[in-house]
Amino acid sequence: MKIISSEFVISNTDVKKCPPETMPEYAFIGRSNVGKSSLINMLTGKKDLAKTSSTPGKTQLINHFLINNEWYIVDLPGYGFAKPNLSVVESWKKFTIKYFLSRENLMCTFVLIDVRHEPQKKDVEFMEFMAENSLPFVMVFTKADKLSAGAVKRNIENYFKEMKKTWAELPKYFVTSALKKSGSQEILDYIEEVNKLWK
Description:
Oligomer: single chain
CATH superfamily: P-loop containing nucleotide triphosphate hydrolases
CATH architecture: 3-Layer(aba) Sandwich
CATH class: Alpha Beta
Strand content: 15-25%
Radius of gyration: 16 Å
CATH topology: Rossmann fold
Structural class: alpha/beta
Shape: globular
Order of helices and strands: EEHEEHEHEHEH
């Protein structure tokens, strides 16, 4: 797949105000500072479509972007905030969970994970939430340019070794680098395949 057009549609905290469920959509989520906005910008070829920031937790809304007039990328607030205001965090958590449990056109969620780190509790807990609610997702390891190829492979193997303690089947995964623009075509090809399942 090639992205020809991408445009911002709407931001909100009310799932009822999201676009009509007439097109497939793909959510992107991860811990703060995982490189979510950079990945979305890499996929769309627009360096400022999703707003990047040096301040973790900048995304505070459900952001819809229309792609090729056929499907949506949904940029969601990260979990795990640098300077949490508990009332705000709880609010984000509630509308994000409501989003996942109510959007029937959500085809897949891309769970972003910083490949530089050991398995993080918040990542594992979120994926368990997805599995428990039968919500399809894949893992996207980000910032692969920060490590050698051998270290990337080793860290991913360590991650899956930890997950195998409780997971019967491991999810599909992609390895990306926004800096080197690697992994985007594999993700887009995957979305193209999943889009064929759209009713």
